[in-house]
Structures are given as structure tokens and as C-alpha cells.
């Protein structure tokens, strides 16, 4: 249980627009802990709010009293019964973890919201989550068999089990009486169509529905009872699926096409405004892998079909094309995703939609609020046209997408909260939008729940008697209104508790320019909308974010939590601002891997924000000793290299070794790299004059020059074999990396500007510049634009990796010795985030090498893993993905371009690690 200001800030928001600071945050380890919390809160009349991953877009998971986070400890899959197709899980189990556990049995949990990589089963039960494939498999309510719950009266109920009935439970007996009193209104107003999620799903309590209490509790958003254990149904996963994308003139036309396609029983049918595709192209064209081939049209319909074999899939695609009129005059354009990778790339665009549309480049911020309405599918096209007209009336815009097969629409809208009357206009729009959805027979929410965003709107779709029925059910379960009050029953006003949607501004004395955010640090840290992708394990797909959270599983170490604390700093809510203990603690375990800048849908760059925070904290003050020893490496290395043998011998002596680490702020368990006996520049100066060729400038970083000259030597051999004449960058030039990572931004700016002024001349003359250390290339390609003098900053964008240069070299072919080589690749985090690793992967594939790429971070991350106090987390990060990958196959060549990655590997294993240049120069190991 914690009440620290930093912890309360982390839990004051979810992914919605609301900020409600709790009094206490607790992490229960058992059902007994939850029961004790309920009892204390009931006795003292303190609100109690449950929380899973905190991905709610409606403000369901924030409260003023006690917030219980079940994701940290109550995350066990108790059992899976493949024969009966059920799983018993604790509420904090992440959906993807359940899917992985069920997959060996050919089973899966049906509903799959776009947050499947981090959302919890308890959260899905809370808001009756659905997702793309609910069209085939149903909502969460349709897939829950039994629940163990604790009511607001502290009664334990094993709902759905034969031993618990109205005869044995006072709560259930009272519930039956309420249902009997409202039979007529329940039969006429509830359960009218599949995505009617707003309010309570009382239709499940009807006698003809079997008085199904578990299904009725799903979607009550923790206002009636708290789930301690869930028995969920699993479905047989299809043997094969195929994704077909249809293109229409606009999104409403795509919606009109839905009803004739529903009889084909697709697994999913998603609508997507092509404007979202445009955003992906603009934001992720380089590092994010670009956009796969898609049909022409501004409204796209993504249809997933299933079959037992390829013949069935081909037949299903044919029937879909016929039903849609694809290939006919006036019919839609059609693209069939040919393989799983293409389909996954398309699904990624769809799943990241909420984050992508929140911060369009050069445009106004787009917000949640009216992001989850639903109407019967046959009314969807008409509803979208009317919604577009309503947006036009208010001078607003948004890019819709959603589960069109179910009639559910998601959209973020550019409400002008910063203008006079902006909040009032927000309220007026939501009231009109609610009336519009109700006029189309729809629901305020189609899967996210009502929360603080839509509870006030329920009278727009329900009669007074229906609302009385909902309130009566709430009173049965929670008469004291302790459980998540202000939600659904007696709701808070929808414009109350709004966290400042317009960020507090912060411009003064910043180290970075924050050009994407108008020079405003407040706008930059508010990029985080709270969708929580930083809590997901992305390593299986090559992702990296967020390594420290994956190691600790503590919300404070997520990118989202750090952003929340920095938002509090900017608002003035954190005493001492930059020098506060809260900010230091929040950022301490950030590895500055930059993965969030690429893996986060909104491009939150916590590495830059951490560097800024260090810069502000230590301006004019003494710094931690590691900032001088590690941050000043470009100054120390040349001095030590004058007598490398002596330096290595001194550091090898046990006593001196220990003293040196203590003095330098380095963890005593950390192995130190050895200085090379001769630098790379010395080798280059002593070599015979090279043959003539096309000039190329090789950027010589300190790591290559002083520690691993073999990498530079190999690179020269590769470049000369490709027809280049290699020249070296000027001695003393530095990319500024070590200064940036330790927040010494003034020095970094000077170093970068000097280096780029020299490179700019070469680049202007047409000489390509290639770097070997990924973090240095990333500094030029990324941080330089925010730090260096503006007259030369643009030159950094022209610095290329070795793979990029070779791919663009006419006539170059990969060496034959790579064919058949099996390699385990650990891409540097900055390489992944800033340049993307696609060029390297393509080069190795074209060479005939078999490459297994490791996702995640190596854990060293430059100075981070060296510093005292970070060793355990550094090793835990390494064990997330890299360690297990190393253990799988010892016959693979280990490929790691980053010096820090190779240094960490030297700590982890006795297997040598090679740079790409070394693999290309000679067969590894020879």
C-alpha cells in the first residue's frame, strides 16, 4: 500500500481524459487482501476502485479513495481444461498471456480488444470488452462461465456455480426480487443489439435467460462486485485465416457494405478511415516499416475469414468478393493479404489507431470522449453520415475506425479545450452526439463502458424506469455506494474531473528544441495518452518498449507512469519540480533506450525527456560521479589509450579494479571492456595507401576507435570490396551520445554542432557518410535535429548505417560465405527506434543467412547498466528476451552491432558477438 505523491500521480489517470488523484494505491496478493480492503472501505465509507492495466478510455479505473491494482500480483492462470474448453484465471492475467497458454491446445479466448497485449481479464470483465473478433466469438459476457466476487456488502459469491443460489445468498435473493419488479422494462430496453454495452446488461437476469448472474455482472465496471477469480470459456482457434481489405470512396460507403457481408460469418469486419493510413505513412515510414499494400479508397473494410484449409479459405475469399461486388463496375478495390506478415502489419495499423490519431503531425490534438458509440450494423452508414454532419456543425474533425461488423465506432476528436468555452462546447457536443446515437437505436458505449465519460448520458437512451432498475441492482450489491462511485449510477458530470486536456506549457531554458511539439516540453510529455502499450511484452515481434517495466512489472517503471509524473511537474503539482525526489525516482530506471519513440503509438520519447530532466536538475551543480566517468568517456578514453597496456593492467588488479569502480560510480559486479593495444585510427594511418574508388566518409566513434578497432578494420575491408575509398572523420569529433544520455546537453550541443559542421561539407560534396555504432548514427539522425545548431543539424539525417549504404551501392552483392549462416541478432535499441532494422534484415536475408532476431533490450543501454544501483535491473532486462534466446541454440553466430550490446553479452555468455561488418568481411570465427 502506498501514498507517495509519485505513486498517486501514476494512478491518477488511465487512458481517458480524467484526472482523479487517489488517496491510496494498493497491490493485493490474494483474494483475502481484496476482501480486507473492501471491508475497511465499507466501514470507513472510502471509495474503492479496481484497476488492471489502466487502459480505460472512459475513466473507469480512477477514483478518489483506494485504488487496487491486481495486475502486479494476481496474474496467475490457475488452470486450463482443454476438454471442457474453460480456463480459471486471476483478474490480473493479461489477455495475451492467456492466449499463449491456450494456444498449445488449439484454443483461444474469443474477445480480443486492441489492447490485448496488456489488458487484463479483470478489466475486460469490468467493461464487457469485445474487440475485433467479437463478431465471431461474442463479447466478454458471452465467454464468462463463472465468477468469484466480493460484493460491496463484503459477501463472497461464487456466481455461476450450482452451490450458490438465491436460497443461499442474501444478495442473489434480493436481486431476484428486483428483477421480478422490472421484468417489462428489462425485456424491452435491454439487450436490443449485440453492442449495447452502456448501463448494466440486465437482460441476462431474466428468467428465460436463466438468471445468469456472471454475465450480468460483466460490464458493471466494478460498481457492484469485485472479481477475485474468473472461469472463462475458450473457443477453438481456426486452423487458418486470411485478411481481405476492401476499398470504398469513403467510410460511410464501407459501412453500407457491411450488412450483405454478415451472412458470410466473418471472424472480424473492421472499418478504417484512410486518413489513419496517411498518418502511419508520415510518422513511421522509416523506422516503423512503412505501410503494406492496401486498396484504393478513403474508406477501408478489413474482413478476416477462417477455414480449415487453403481450399476453404480460397472459397471464402471468392464468396466475399462476389457478395461485395469486387471486380465489378463500381465495386470496391480488393487486396488479399498474401501472408501472415502482411496481415499482421495491417492489423497493427488498426490496433494502434487510437494512439496514432491522437497527435497528428501539424494538427490539433485529438481526444477521447465520444470514442465508443455503437448502433445496429444496418444503421451504421447513416449514423456515420449524421455524425460527420454533427462534427462539421461544431467545427470539429476526427478519423473514425471501429468494429463495423458489430456497428461499433471509435473516433478521437479535436476538441478545442484551450479556447474560451472549449469545455462547454465539449459538453454540448457529447449531449448532441448521445441524442444522435440514441436516434439510430444505438448505445453510448459499444465496448469501453460508460465510466466518467458517458454515465451522465444514459438518460438519452434509457427510460426513467430502466435507470431505476439499474440503480436498484446497484443498491442490492453495493448499498453504501463504496464500489467505484460516480460511475453509471449517480454519475459524475461528464465534464467534471477533466485533467487539463490542453497541456501546461513549459518553454523556458530547455535543452532540446521539441520541434514536433512547438518548442513546448509540456506538449511533449502530454503525447502520452495512457493507452499503456508500454506495459506490453513486445519482444516476440521485435519490439523493445518498455524494458524496465518488463523487468520490474511496476507501473512506476512504465513510460506512461513517467509521463504522468512529468505532466505533474509541468503543471506545478510536484514540489521542487526538476530537483524533486519524485522525478528522480520515476526516471531512475529508464534505460533511455528510445524504444518508446517508435513503439509507442504517440511517439513519446522518454529518453529525451530523461536527458532534459537530468540537464535541468544538475545545471550549475555537481553531478553524480558516473556522469563524469561515463559521460566524459570521449575525454578519458584518449588519455587512457596513450598507455593501454598499463590502463588494462591497473584495472585488472583486484584492489585497484574495485577502487576504480567505486570512484567511477560503476557497479562492482560489472565487467569493464578492455582498451585495444592499438587504436583504429593508428591502424588506418599505418596501412598502405588505398586504391582509388568512390569516396566514403567513415564516422569513427570512440567505442570502435579505442575498444574494438577490429570492427573498423572489417568495415574498411567491406567498403573497399564494394568499390569505396574510405576516408575517416576528423579526430576529436563526437556524436555527443554519452553527454546526451547523462543530460549534459550544453556539451552535447557543442560536440554535435562541431561534428556536423565537418560532415555537412562532405555531404554537400556528395560523399556518403557511414557510421558503425548504431547509437552514434541514431544521435545524428535523431537528437541532432533537436540539439545541434540549426545551420548544420539537417546534415545528421544523411548519416547512414553500413547496411543502408551497401543496399544503395550499385552492383554490390553480399559475400557468398554468408549463405547458410545461422545468426542470432540483437539489434541495438537506438537502431530499432530511430533507423529501423529493416535494411539489416533485408541484407542478411538476401545473403542467404538464417537470422533469428531478438526483441527487447540487452539491458546495458550505454551508461545505465554500468552505474551503481542498476545492475540487477540491467540483468533482469537481459533475461527478458536475450538470455532465453542465447540458451536456445549455441550454434548460432551472435550478431550485435552495438558496443553496449556486445559488452553486455560478454557479461552474459562466453560466446563471441560480432558486428555486421565482421560477418560481411570474413566468415565468423575464422
Structure characterization notes:
By secondary structure, the protein is an alpha/beta fold. It has five domains: 5-69, 2-Layer Sandwich (Uridine Diphospho-n-acetylenolpyruvylglucosamine Reductase, domain 2), CATH 3.30.43; 77-236, Uridine Diphospho-n-acetylenolpyruvylglucosamine Reductase, domain 3 (2-Layer Sandwich); 240-351, Alpha-Beta Plaits, CATH 3.30.70; 515-622, no CATH class; 625-926, no CATH class. 40% of the residues lie in helices and 12% in strands. It has 41 helices and 25 strands. It has a five-stranded antiparallel sheet with strand order 4-5-9-7-8. Strands 14-11-13-12-16 form a five-stranded antiparallel sheet. A four-stranded parallel sheet has the order 19-18-20-21, with helices on both faces. The longest helix has 20 residues, at 745-764. The model has no long low-confidence stretch (mean pLDDT 93).
Amino acid at each position: 500500500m502506498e501514498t507517495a505523491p509519485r505513486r498517486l500521480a501514476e494512478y491518477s489517470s488511465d487512458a481517458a481524459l480524467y484526472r482523479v488523484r487517489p488517496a491510496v494505491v494498493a497491490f493485493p496478493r490474494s483474494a483475502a487482501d481484496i476482501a480486507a480492503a473492501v471491508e475497511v472501505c465499507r466501514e470507513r465509507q472510502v471509495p474503492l476502485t479496481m484497476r488492471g492495466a489502466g487502459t480505460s478510455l472512459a475513466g473507469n479505473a480512477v477514483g478518489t479513495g483506494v485504488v487496487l491494482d491486481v495486475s502486479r500480483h494476481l496474474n496467475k492462470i490457475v488452470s486450463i481444461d482443454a476438454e471442457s474448453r474453460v480456463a480459471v484465471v486471476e483478474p490480473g492475467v493479461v489477455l495475451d498471456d492467456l492466449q499463449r497458454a491456450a494456444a498449445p491446445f488449439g484454443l483461444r479466448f474469443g474477445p480480443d480488444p486492441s489492447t490485448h497485449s496488456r489488458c487484463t481479464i479483470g478489466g475486460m470483465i469490468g467493461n464487457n470488452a469485445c474487440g475485433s473478433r467479437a463478431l465471431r466469438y461474442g463479447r466478454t459476457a458471452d465467454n464468462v462461465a463463472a465468477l468469484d466476487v466480493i460484493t460491496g456488502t463484503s459477501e463472497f459469491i461464487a456466481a455461476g456455480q450450482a452451490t450458490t443460489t438465491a436460497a443461499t445468498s442474501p444478495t442473489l435473493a434480493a436481486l431476484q426480487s428486483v428483477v421480478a419488479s422490472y421484468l417489462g422494462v428489462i425485456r424491452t430496453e435491454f439487450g436490443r443489439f449485440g453492442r449495447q454495452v452502456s448501463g448494466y446488461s440486465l437482460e441476462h437476469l431474466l428468467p428465460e435467460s436463466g438468471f445468469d448472474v456472471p454475465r450480468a455482472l460483466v460490464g458493471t465496471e466494478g460498481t457492484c462486485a469485485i472479481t477475485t477469480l474468473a472461469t472463462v470459456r475458450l473457443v477453438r482457434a481456426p486452423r487458418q485465416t486470411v485478411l481481405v481489405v476492401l476499398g470504398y470512396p469513403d467510410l460511410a460507403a464501407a459501412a453500407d457494405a457491411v450488412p450483405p457481408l454478415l451472412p458470410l460469418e466473418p471472424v472480424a469486419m473492421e472499418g478504417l478511415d484512410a486518413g489513419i493510413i496517411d498518418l502511419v505513412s508520415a510518422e513511421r515510414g522509416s523506422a516503423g516499416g512503412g505501410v503494406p499494400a492496401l486498396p484504393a479508397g478513403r474508406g477501408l473494410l478489413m474482413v478476416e475469414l477462417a477455414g480449415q484449409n487453403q481450399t476453404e479459405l480460397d472459397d471464402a475469399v471468392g464468396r466475399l468478393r462476389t457478395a461485395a461486388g469486387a471486380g465489378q463496375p463500381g465495386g470496391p478495390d480488393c487486396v488479399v493479404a498474401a501472408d501472415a506478415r502482411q496481415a499482421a502489419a495491417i492489423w497493427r495499423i488498426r490496433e494502434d489507431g487510437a494512439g496514432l490519431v491522437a497527435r497528428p503531425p501539424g494538427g490539433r490534438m485529438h481526444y477521447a470522449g465520444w470514442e465508443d458509440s455503437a448502433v445496429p450494423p444496418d444503421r451504421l452508414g447513416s449514423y456515420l453520415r449524421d455524425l460527420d454532419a454533427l462534427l462539421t456543425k461544431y467545427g470539429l474533425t476526427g478519423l473514425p475506425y471501429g468494429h463495423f461488423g458489430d456497428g461499433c465506432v471509435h473516433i478521437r476528436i479535436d476538441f478545442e479545450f484551450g479556447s474560451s468555452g472549449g469545455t462547454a462546447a465539449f459538453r454540448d457536443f457529447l449531449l448532441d452526439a448521445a441524442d444522435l446515437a440514441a436516434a439510430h437505436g444505438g448505445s453510448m458505449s459499444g465496448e469501453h463502458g460508460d465510466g466518467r465519460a458517458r454515465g451522465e448520458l444514459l438518460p438519452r437512451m434509457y427510460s426513467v424506469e430502466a435507470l431505476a432498475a439499474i440503480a436498484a441492482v446497484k443498491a442490492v450489491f453495493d448499498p453504501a455506494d463504496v464500489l467505484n462511485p460516480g460511475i453509471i449510477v449517480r454519475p459524475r458530470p461528464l465534464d467534471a474531473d477533466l485533467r487539463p486536456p490542453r497541456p501546461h506549457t513549459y518553454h523556458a531554458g530547455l535543452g532540446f528544441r521539441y520541434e514536433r511539439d512547438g518548442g513546448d516540453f509540456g506538449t511533449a510529455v502530454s503525447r502520452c495518452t495512457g493507452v499503456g502499450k508500454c506495459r506490453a511484452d513486445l519482444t516476440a515481434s521485435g519490439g523493445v518498449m518498455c524494458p524496465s517495466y518488463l523487468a520490474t512489472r511496476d507501473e512506476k517503471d512504465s513510460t506512461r507512469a513517467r509521463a504522468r509524473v512529468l505532466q505533474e511537474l509541468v503543471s506545478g503539482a510536484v514540489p521542487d519540480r526538476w530537483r524533486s525526489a519524485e522525478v528522480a525516482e520515476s526516471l531512475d530506471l529508464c534505460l533511455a533506450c528510445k524504444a518508446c519513440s517508435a513503439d509507442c503509438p504517440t511517439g513519446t520519447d522518454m529518453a529525451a525527456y530523461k536527458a532534459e530532466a537530468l540537464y535541468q536538475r544538475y545545471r550549475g551543480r555537481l553531478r553524480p560521479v558516473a556522469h563524469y566517468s561515463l559521460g566524459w568517456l570521449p575525454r578519458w578514453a584518449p588519455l587512457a589509450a596513450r598507455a593501454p597496456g598499463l590502463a588494462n593492467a591497473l584495472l585488472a588488479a583486484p584492489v585497484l579494479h574495485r577502487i576504480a569502480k567505486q570512484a567511477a560510480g560503476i557497479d562492482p559486479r560489472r565487467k569493464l571492456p578492455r582498451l585495444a593495444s592499438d587504436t583504429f585510427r593508428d591502424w588506418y594511418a599505418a596501412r598502405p595507401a588505398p586504391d582509388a574508388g568512390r569516396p566514403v566518409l567513415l564516422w569513427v566513434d570512440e567505442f570502435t576507435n579505442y575498444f574494438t578497432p577490429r570492427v573498423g578494420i572489417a568495415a574498411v575491408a567491406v567498403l573497399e570490396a564494394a568499390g569505396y575509398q574510405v576516408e575517416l572523420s576528423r579526430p576529436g569529433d563526437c556524436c555527443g551520445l554519452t553527454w546526451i544520455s547523462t543530460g549534459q546537453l550544453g556539451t552535447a550541443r557543442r560536440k554535435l554542432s562541431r561534428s556536423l559542421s565537418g560532415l555537412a561539407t562532405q555531404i554537400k560534396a556528395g560523399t556518403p557518410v557511414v557510421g558503425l555504432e548504431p547509437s552514434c548514427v541514431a544521435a545524428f539522425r535523431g537528437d541532432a535535429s533537436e540539439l545541434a545548431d540549426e545551420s548544420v543539424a539537417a546534415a545528421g539525417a544523411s548519416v547512414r548505417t553500413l547496411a543502408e549504404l551497401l543496399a544503395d551501392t550499385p552492383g554490390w552483392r553480399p559475400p557468398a560465405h554468408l549463405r547458410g549462416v545461422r545468426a542470432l541478432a540483437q539489434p541495438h535499441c537506438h537502431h530499432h527506434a530511430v533507423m529501423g532494422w529493416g535494411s539489416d534484415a533485408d541484407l542478411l536475408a538476401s545473403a542467404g543467412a538464417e537470422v533469428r532476431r531478438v526483441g527487447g533490450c540487452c539491458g546495458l543501454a550505454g551508461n545505465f547498466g554500468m552505474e551503481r544501483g542498476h545492475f540487477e535491473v540491467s540483468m533482469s532486462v537481459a533475461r527478458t528476451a536475450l538470455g532465453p534466446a542465447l540458451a536456445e541454440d549455441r550454434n548460432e553466430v551472435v550478431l550485435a552491432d552495438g558496443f553496449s550490446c556486445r559488452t553486455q553479452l560478454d557479461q552474459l555468455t562466453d560466446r563471441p558477438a560480432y558486428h555486421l561488418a565482421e560477418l560481411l568481411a570474413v566468415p565468423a570465427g575464422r
